[in-house]
Amino acid sequence: MLADLIESLAKIVFIFTVNVGVFAPILGWVERKQSAVMQDRIGANRADILGFTAIGLFHSLADAVKLLTKEDFVPANANKFFHTLAPFIALVPAISAFAIIPFGGRYELFGREINLVIADLDVGILYVFALAGLATYGTVLAGWSSRSNWSLLGGLRASAQMLSYEVAMGLSIIGIIIVYGSLRLTDIGAAQENFFRWGIFLQPVGFIIYMTCAIAENKRIPFDIPEAESELVAGYFTEYSGMKFVMFWMAEFLEMVTISAIVTTLFFGAWHIPFVTDAMLLSWFSGFAGPNGAAALAMAVNIAVFFAKVSFFIWLQMTIRWTLPRFRYDQVMRMCWKMLLPLSLINLSITGLVVLLL
Amino acid sequence: MGLKLSRWTVTRNLMGGKAEDAGPERLLDGSVILTRLEAAVNWARKYSFFLYPFVTACCGMEFMSVAGPRYDLDRFGAALPRFSPRQADLLMVVGTISHKQAPILVKVYNQMAEPKWVFAFGVCAVSGGFYDNYSVVQGIDTLIPVDIYVPGCPPRPEMVLDGLLLLQQKVKQERWTDWPRGEAPVSRC
């Protein structure tokens, strides 16, 4: 009982530290540097502490301190309670979606089986979609409670876009569920031990549809019409200042991490290294480290591999964000209902047919 | 005061503190780092300007040049343009402000969240420039408080960068009591 509690707490603290402590602040800096590199600039590099600049990393610290000490503005006539609540509703699903994502396999450590996932739900992937639906409320509430025309228009656009893309996103994942025969993410991860059984080989169309819909769901360029600067000032968070405004950004960055983690788990072999099975890893390490040491080493290697893949997909999303211009509003809707939705339905029928015949 | 320049006084100067405040640290022989909260917050503010580009005229081209790859405003931490005044710190008034435009400028200034600074970019914003006539505001400081004046028609990007560095020097020396600034002094314009 106590051991279970300690194990869960350790996993929660680890995931929380990695997401909120490492990814959220560092991604702001990464995005800045990535844009600088892609535009042939140098990028932020002047903020120094005792003469050290750490290639611009302290700019994230400077931004955070400045935003914390900035005036917290609530518009006159706005609904103060909902105006304050909205950023929290946007941020909490982004953090808690990571609870069901396995960042490693199962290991036998000191006679205890350790399963590297916070909550091993048997409806795993549905939980992610439920939380993605909840994130819509934060955006819509922010737009509605600000009592500003731009915010309201941004909120309406966000609700239309996020609800539409959720349909195509859900249908693109069903192909994967049919192939692996499970909703549980640890099972899907474990089924991809063989390199040629990775989701990307079995469901290539599903991957493309999911990635597109996930970026649209996260409201990043080229799908950032809810905040389109040239049309709506800053969209649904026009009236937010200081830390509340940055909470929407943190939610965006953390959702980016979650999307990358889900893509890794469903399509890119989760924690597995290509052509290396878990048993092979264990047998290599047990040669010099003993059974417990081997399990610990294998665990460390698998976690590192998982987060390396996640970092790659974060990089991919940032490259897309700094490459493409924004779609027009009707183009976004047409792309969802007339292209992605039929495509995912066709993908689903063909997958079902093939699985039935084999 | 003994003129022994310990590691302390040097760091204090780097972080924006004053050398004569370094008494306690000298007693502790440089084994701890002390800084004032004000100095730390000012350090953060000076490296994190979110711009509001209020671009009305030809100086805008020069603003794009200074924000672009060759001169790269992002190096000083002032890259991110926010088009909502609530989220902006530095109001860049780039170009000629006519009397028709003046109420809009004042409104945008009043909408910005504290702390806020104003940068007069180009000679038209500074003093009206050669538009010495009935339709142009003769300097935006007749409407709102201005922190940095950068003349030129248009100013060279180097001048703008120099102006930004001077603004950083100014922000470094600010006290808590300088804020809030409140609304613009004009009510009709």
Unreliable spans of chain A are none
Q: Sketch the major β-sheet of chain A.
A: 2 strands, antiparallel
**Poorly predicted sequence stretches spanning 5 or more consecutive residues of chain B:** 1-17
Overall shape of chain B: globular
| N-to-C span of chain A | 45 Å
Tally of alpha and pi helices of chain A: 12
What is the SS-derived class of chain A? mainly alpha
The major sheet of chain B is characterized as: 4 strands, parallel
- By DSSP, the count of extended strands of chain A is 2
- Determine the structural class of chain B based on helices, strands and strand pairing: alpha/beta
What is the element string of chain B, with H for helices and E for strands?
Answer: HHHEHEHEHEH
Oligomer state equals heterodimer
What pattern of helices and strands is seen along the backbone of chain A? HHHEEHHHHHHHHH
Strand fraction of chain A equals: under 5%
Helix content of chain A: 55-70%
Please supply descriptive tags for the structure shown above.
heterodimer, A: 358 residues, 12 helices, B: 189 residues, alpha/beta, globular
Task: Give structural notes.
The complex is a heterodimer of chains A (358) and B (189). Chain A has 358 residues and is an all-alpha fold. Chain A has helices spanning 2-38, 58-68, 80-96, 124-145, 149-180, 185-190, 199-202, 204-217, 229-232, 242-267, 278-321, 329-357, and strands at 106-109, 112-115. In chain A, α5 runs antiparallel to α8 (204-217), α5 (149-180) packs parallel to α12 and α8 runs antiparallel to α12 (329-357). Chain A is globular. The termini of chain A are far apart. The model of chain A has no long low-confidence stretch (mean pLDDT 86). The termini of chain B are far apart. Helices cover 34% and strands 10% of the residues of chain B. A four-stranded parallel beta sheet of chain B has the order 1-2-3-4. By secondary structure, chain B is an alpha/beta fold. Chain B has seven helices and four strands, in the order αααβαβαβαβα. In chain B, α3 (37-46) runs antiparallel to α7. The chains are: A mainly alpha (358), B alpha/beta (189). The interface between A and B is medium-sized, with 39 and 28 residues.
